[in-house]
């Protein structure tokens, strides 16, 4: 008896119902996540209503004022232009000098970032409850909010990086070039918000080409990869050229001189300089013995190092590091590992609002969850091995997780190599902390979903053998 085929209308209707049900489910949990995240963010802002400033805020506001009076002067020695332009846009909408509106806008970006994390988790796992749970942990993360709310660039950079990753992963899933260029646009905005991301294309481009070769699409995608790479570093070169011509500094920001000098003070390497800096190292010895190893304090007593945007301080530091690269890297390993779980309270001091009773337990949960960051090296190692292992199942998932691990690893490594204080590590980690937690939570879910049952079955099989 021949089995009758289903009618085309019935088949189309079945497909529509299934698709619509899945879409409704994704939207329902997305809206629920939006509500929870917005509520927790609103409670946090109401609990700490004052505008929070920090040591970086005056420098950003200085650039904002200069852009408003001289719109053609976007290049500054100390600060990149995107975050000041963000403040200018908020001023244009909410009123001049309305820093409260800037802080609220950063809270809105935080909510959007959480929804994007939910989207990334759905893209990777297609498990709505897992994606929602990951979004819930990040959306109620008051530690992140404590760095997003103040007037500084971390909140904007966090949203830009997350959007970049979402667009990049969607490009890898669909091979649609428009999403690749959307990712490049987000990266360019990130690059001119936080200078530490300038070296990421050097690591990411070979990996993307490797993936394109595996997928057999490298001939079609290679021109786009080359064009994007050239565009990124051409714009960066133009910015450096203008900075050199206008301000007399050949680099993205002069903060790098300061940070390199801070690194050799942090690692106590100032006595390992080449012969031409021996006398200066003795002067540093005397200053450190009477003050401390904070470069802000040391450079006050060494004006020759502080001249021309700390140029000589940077030259001395780079000279020391280049002559002792192995020692520098070995001393960076403990800082890399320690930065993952070292915690500093960034909540406003002496201010307890009416919603502290509701936020207190969230703070306790997120403080415990912060220690999960210590699992990152193991997760990154596993995904790195699987990324280059050809004979693996779930190739798309492994590719996405491998690239995600690379981006997070780069963020931690460049922060460790360029920063010299652990409280700064925690602040800068805000930019990629959502992706870090996403990577770890997905890794744990897959471990308990696949590896643990297999180990259990293997154990039962061994027990049954005589």
Task: Explain what this protein looks like in three dimensions.
The protein has helices at 8-47, 57-69, 82-94, 99-125, 128-139, 142-148, 154-174, 177-191, 200-215, 218-247, 255-266, 278-290, 295-298, 303-323, 325-341, 356-369, 376-387, 395-418, 422-429, 433-464. With 466 residues, the chain is mainly α. The chain contains 20 helices and no strands. The protein is 75% helix and 0% strand. Helix 3 packs across helix 4 (99-125), helix 8 packs parallel to helix 10 (218-247) and helix 18 (395-418) crosses helix 20.
Strand content: under 5%
- Strand tally: 0
Number of helices: 20
The level of helicity is over 70%
| Radius of gyration using CA atoms only | 25 Å
Distance between the termini: 49 Å
Q: What is the H/E order? A: HHHHHHHHHHHHHHHHHHHH
Q: What is the makeup of the main sheet?
A: none
Uncertain residue ranges:
1-7
- Structural class designation: mainly alpha
Mean pLDDT comes to 89
Overall, the morphology is: globular
């Amino acid at each position: 008896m021949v089995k009758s085929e289903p009618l085309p209308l019935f088949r189309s209707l079945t497909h529509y119902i299934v698709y619509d049900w899945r879409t409704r489910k994704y939207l329902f949990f997305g809206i629920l996540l939006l509500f929870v995240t917005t509520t927790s963010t609103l409670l946090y802002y109401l609990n700490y209503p004052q505008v929070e400033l920090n040591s970086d805020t005056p420098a950003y506001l200085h650039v904002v004022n200069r852009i408003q009076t001289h719109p053609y002067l976007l290049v500054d020695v100390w600060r990149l232009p995107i975050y000041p332009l963000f403040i200018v846009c908020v001023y244009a909408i909410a009123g001049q000098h309305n820093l409260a509106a800037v802080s609220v806008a950063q809270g809105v970006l935080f909510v959007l970032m959480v929804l994007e994390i939910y989207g990334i988790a759905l893209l990777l796992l297609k498990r709505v409850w897992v994606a929602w749970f990951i979004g819930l942990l990040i959306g109620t993360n008051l530690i992140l909010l404590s760095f997003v709310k103040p007037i500084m660039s971390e909140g904007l950079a966090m949203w830009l990086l997350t959007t970049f990753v979402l667009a990049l992963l969607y490009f890898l899933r669909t091979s649609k070039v428009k999403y690749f260029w959307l990712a490049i646009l987000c990266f360019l905005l990130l690059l001119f918000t936080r200078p530490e991301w300038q070296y990421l294309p050097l690591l990411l481009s070979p990996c993307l080409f490797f993936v394109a070769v595996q997928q057999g699409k490298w001939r079609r995608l290679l021109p786009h990869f080359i064009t994007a790479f050239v565009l990124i570093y051409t714009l960066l070169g133009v910015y450096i050229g203008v900075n050199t011509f206008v301000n007399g500094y050949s680099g993205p920001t002069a903060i790098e001189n300061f940070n390199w000098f801070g690194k050799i003070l942090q690692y106590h390497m100032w006595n390992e300089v080449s012969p031409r800096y021996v006398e200066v190292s003795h002067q540093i010895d005397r200053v450190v013995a009477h003050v401390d190893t904070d470069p802000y304090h040391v450079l006050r007593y060494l004006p020759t190092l502080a001249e021309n945007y700390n140029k000589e301080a940077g030259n001395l530091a780079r000279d020391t590091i280049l002559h002792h690269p192995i020692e520098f890297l070995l001393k960076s390993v403990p800082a890399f590992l320690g930065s993952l779980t070292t915690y500093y309270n960034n909540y406003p001091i002496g201010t307890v609002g009416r919603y502290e009773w509701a936020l207190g337990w969230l703070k306790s949960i997120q403080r415990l969850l912060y220690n999960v960051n210590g699992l990152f090296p193991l997760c990154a190692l596993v995904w790195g091995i699987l990324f280059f292992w050809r004979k693996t199942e779930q190739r798309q998932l492994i590719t996405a997780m491998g690239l995600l691990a690379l981006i997070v690893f780069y963020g931690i490594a460049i922060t460790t190599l360029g920063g010299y204080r652990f409280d700064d590590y925690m602040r800068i980690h805000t930019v990629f902390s959502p992706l870090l937690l996403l990577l770890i939570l997905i890794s744990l879910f897959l471990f308990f979903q696949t590896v643990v049952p297999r180990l259990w079955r293997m154990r039962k099989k061994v027990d049954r053998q005589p």
